[in-house]
Design brief:
With about 675 residues, this protein is α+β, with helices and mostly antiparallel strands. The chain is built from 21 helices and eleven strands. Keywords: Coiled coil, Hydrogen ion transport, Ion transport, Membrane, Transmembrane, Transmembrane helix, Transport.
């Protein structure tokens, strides 16, 4: 890859293609595999439903629907789908019929299996509910029998009242046998169901219910539901009709229940036999369903790729125009100039694969249209290019900041992070991902969080490496300091700080450079004694703030310098005069001057300097306020007041220079011309 290809986006050209109708599908398939062509839509005013290949796209969408149905059923059963990582070529158009037949057969088979399974599960649920009814109602019938005997006992006739509110003695000749209905209802509906029965039937019913301990499976949703068995005793056909309507409204299921114990026992035996038979049939049905889905799971990923490729090809073909003979398709596309040979080779391969005797033709076209931006990336630069594109894609042939971002982004991250310990953990984790990238790619891990880390493995690797370096400069490892080269601060045994350090290191001391500093700087980074200092925060904040200003202003200067390369490349002298130059002057007069003052202060003043050096922050504020009341006390060099006033005036003049200069000049040219 040349330096120009890294610095700027690829040079693109507009090409026109002439493809034979029978070879167009294969040619587009070959072009799609290399991924170097962007086709233009030559039918922007044609409705999507009126294009030539709309029927083929509908067939592809129908196949995608069937594949989604199969995938849903596979996931429902928890069957792993085989993903070998293969990238199959788009099948020939005639193979669409075979794929459609395969998907149709699988869908019909799965629908039939699901329908049979649902019917069997519904039948199994009914038999299970009936089994619980027969078990639970024995106690209900015994209590009802005792209740009926109590109504006919003359000794307690004055104390008991019949179901209809009459004295049982006065209607002894009219006694009728109690009727009953039994069924099953959702457990959470029991309270309101009981209240409704009481109000509608005016208390002339006797309701008993018992919970079914084991959950039952809903045959439609497959969810577990909890239900209760109930039995209602009543008298009269009118009450029976009301009760059935209430049960229907509450979606309670009613079942026939024999009156005698012998009949109930006989029915229970029959129910158990049918349940065992149903269990056998359900097991066979589930085994058949599982075998079908396992066979489909082995190929569903490959099928999905094939269908998507077919659909993409026909979507692309819909962008083409037909010539007057209806035998040739005309296409226009953008492609990199450096890859024209590969594109021509792909067209030849597609023509040979289709068996066409007429070769496909590609011609370069002259146009005034702005080409699309195409930045060629590899696995290292792709992550950084994604970060840049997230903020904005550069215009055609502009300087691509991604190569510079490969260093500046992780370095600036490390300046903020700055910890050797955590940086080393990041570096080792990313190094593992880099060294094992082929094995991890082959596993086709679907976890979204892992894929995010894996895609940015090179970014994390550099961030970790730079964080180790920045932590070494800050002398910070897990918020602790290392004394690698020996402390350059010597405390005398007679000094009060000496005993504090040696006896109680957890107590902080005030580090004063005067008297305890040897005069030799710590070889790399910050001296470890600052971790014990009371003024540690003030020292570190001052150091890191100055470093941040220097690096931030340098980054801004670098960005403006890149804009100069763009202006010069596109031959825009007005942008250089009215954009680049005032930007540089404005930035220098404000922040560039501050960076210079930081270095001047570092070089001019030392710990023994008298008086104390002036504050740069206060000086910068006074610079813009033209406040120099303290005179020479806050001045670093002679003539500072006049020079700073000059810089502020120049910075203010740069604003109309940038905002109005180009507009006024262009207005002048338009009015008077040249």
């Amino acid at each position: 890859m040349s330096m120009d290809a890294l610095l700027r986006s690829e040079e693109m050209t507009l090409c026109q293609m002439f493809l034979q109708s029978e070879a167009a599908y294969a040619c587009v398939s070959e072009l799609g595999e290399i991924g170097l062509v962007q086709f233009r839509d030559l039918n922007p005013d044609v409705n999507a439903f009126q294009r030539k290949f709309v029927n083929e796209i509908r067939r592809c969408e129908e196949m995608e629907r069937k594949l989604r149905f199969l995938e849903k059923e596979i996931n429902k059963d928890g069957i792993p789908m085989l993903n070998t990582g293969d990238n199959p070529e788009a099948p020939a158009p005639r193979e669409m019929i075979d794929l459609e037949a395969t998907f149709e057969k699988l869908e019909n088979e799965m629908k039939e299996v699901n329908s049979n399974s649902e019917a069997l599960k519904r039948n199994f649920l009914e038999l299970t509910e009936l089994k619980h009814i027969l078990r639970k109602t024995q106690t209900f019938f015994e209590e009802a029998h005792q209740h009926q005997q109590a109504l006919h006992d003359p000794s307690i006739a004055e104390e008991r009242v019949g179901l209809l509110g009459e004295d049982p003695v006065t209607r002894s000749g009219q006694q009728n046998k109690l009727g009953f209905v039994a069924g099953v209802i959702l457990r959470e509906r029991i309270p309101s169901f009981e209240v409704m029965l009481w109000r509608v039937c005016r208390g002339n019913v006797f309701l008993r219910q018992a919970e079914i301990e084991a959950p039952l499976e809903d045959p439609i949703t497959g969810d577990s539901v909890y239900k209760s068995v109930f039995i209602i005793f009543f008298q009269g056909e009118q009450l029976k009709s009301r009760i059935k309507k209430i049960c229907e409204g509450y979606r309670a299921t009613l079942y026939p229940c024999p009156e005698t114990q012998a009949e109930r026992r006989e029915m229970a035996i029959g129910v158990m036999t049918r349940i065992e038979d149903l269990n056998t049939v359900l097991g066979q049905t589930q085994d058949h369903r599982h075998r079908v889905l396992v066979a489909a799971a082995k190929n569903i990923k490959v099928w999905s790729i094939k269908v998507r490729k077919i659909k993409a090809i026909y979507h692309t073909l819909n962008m083409f125009n037909l010539d007057v003979t209806q035998k040739c398709l005309i296409a226009e596309c953008w492609c990199p100039v450096a890859d024209l040979d590969r594109i021509q080779q792909a067209l030849r391969s597609g023509t040979e694969r289709s068996g066409s005797s007429v070769p496909s033709i590609i011609n370069r076209m002259q146009t005034r249209m702005v080409p699309p931006t195409y930045n060629r990336c590899n696995k290292f630069t792709q992550g950084f290019q994604n970060i840049v594109d997230a903020y904005g894609v550069s215009c055609y042939r502009e300087v691509n900041p991604a190569p510079f971002t490969c260093i500046t982004f992780p370095f600036l991250f490390a300046v903020m992070f700055g910890d050797m310990g955590h940086g080393l953990i990041m570096f080792l984790f990313a190094l593992f991902l880099v060294l094992k990238e082929k094995q991890l790619e082959a596993k086709k891990i679907q976890n979204e969080i892992f894929n995010t880390f894996f895609g940015g493995r090179y970014i994390i690797l550099l961030m970790g490496a730079f964080s180790v370096y920045a932590g070494l400069m800050y002398n910070d490892i897990f918020s602790k300091s290392l004394n690698l080269f020996g402390c350059q601060w010597v405390l005398s045994p007679l000094s009060p700080e000496y005993n504090v350090i040696t006896s109680k290191p957890e107590e902080r001391i005030f580090v004063d450079p005067n008297g305890t500093f040897t005069g030799t700087s710590y070889p790399i980074g910050v001296d470890p004694i600052w971790s014990l200092a009371k003024n540690k925060i003030a020292f570190n904040n001052s150091l890191k703030m100055k470093m941040s200003i220097i690096l931030g202003v340098s980054q801004m200067f670098f960005g403006i310098a890149l804009s100069f390369l763009n202006h010069r490349h596109f031959q825009r002298p007005l942008n250089i005069i009215f954009d680049f130059i005032p930007m540089v002057v404005f930035l220098f007069c404000m922040f560039g001057y501050l960076v210079i003052m930081i270095f001047v202060k570092w070089l001019k003043y030392s710990s023994t300097s008298k008086p104390q050096p002036p504050s740069l922050l206060i000086g910068l504020i006074n610079m813009f306020l033209f406040n120099y009341k303290d005179g020479e006390d806050n001045m670093i060099y002679s003539g500072q007041q006049g020079f700073q006033s000059f810089l502020v005036i120049v910075a203010v003049l740069c604003v109309p220079w940038m905002m109005l200069g180009k507009t006024i000049y262009q207005r002048y040219l338009k009015r008077y011309g040249q």
